[in-house]
Predict the structure.
Amino acid sequence: MLEEYLDFAVRMAEEAGRIQLAYFRGDDLAMKTKSNVSDVVTRADRESEELIVRRIAERYPTHAVLGEEGGARGDAAGEWRWVVDPLDGTTNYSQGLPVFCVSIALQHRGETVVGVVYAPYLRELFTAVRGGGAWCRRGAGEPVRLQVSAKQELARSVVATGFPYDKSENPDNNSDNVARILPRVRDVRRMGSAAYDLACVASSMLDGFWELNLHEWDVCAGNLLVTEAGGVVESLRPDRGISLVAGNATLVGYMKQYVR
Ligand code: IPD
Ligand code: CA
Ligand code: CA
C-alpha cells in the first residue's frame, strides 16, 4: 500500500520537475513577491502545485492536501494528508541556480509515512517509506540506500543552514547562530532549499543542518529521509515556526550547544 503511494508521489514529482525544467533559466518565469521582497514565487511554483493537487484529487479524492502556494484543501481531520512544497529553493530557481526540488510527503493520521524529494536539474531522486529506509537514485542509476554521516567531531563537519524571509524586520534571523558555530566546524553552507538540505543530511553530503522558522511543506519529506537514514531531527525551539536541527545523534547534540 505505502509502495503504491510512493510510486504515485514519485510520478508527480517527476511531472512537476519537467514543468520546472521547461521554465528554468528562461525569460517567462512571471516572478512575483509574496510576504516581502526576499520571498518570491514563479509560474513554475504555481503550475507545479496545481499539477500535484490535480493528480491527488483525481486519484485520492478523499485525501487532504497542504501546499505552500494554495494552503490547506480537503478534510484536514481525515486519515490521509499530502504535504507539498511544489518548488523548494525558489530563490535559487529564479536566479538560474540549480539547487531546487519538489518535496512531497504523505501523512497517515499525522505521521509521515512517505517522503519524496526530487531535484530535477541535478537528477537526484530521494525517497523514503516509513520503516523501509531512505534511498537515492541518480539519473538512470540504481537506487542506493542512504545512511547519515558517521562523523563524531564538529570540527570535521560541514553543516548547512538557511535564513528566514523576515530576516530584515526581525533580528532573530539566525546570524547569531552562524557566528557561534562557524569557528567550530569545517565549513557552513547555505544551499537555498531546506528539503534538499535534509536530503543531503540523509545522504551524508552534509553532516548536519539547522534552520529556524520553516514550514511543514519544507521539512515533512526531508525529515523522514533523515530518520530513515539513521539520523535524528530535533526541534530547536517552540517559538519560531518549525525550527530544527538534523544529523547523527552525536553531531545534533554538539550543534545544539551553539545554535538555538
Ligand atoms: C525556502 C527554502 C530555503 C529556506 C527558506 C524556505 P521556498 O523555501 O527552503 O532554503 O531557507 O526558509 O522558505 O520558499 O524556496 O519554497
Ligand atoms: Ca520551501
Ligand atoms: Ca516553495
User: Anything to note?
Assistant: The pocket of D-MYO-inositol-1-phosphate (ligand 1) is lined by residues 68, 85, 88-91, 162-164, 192-194, 211, 214, 218 (CB under 6 Å). The mean pLDDT is 97. The longest helix spans residues 2-23.
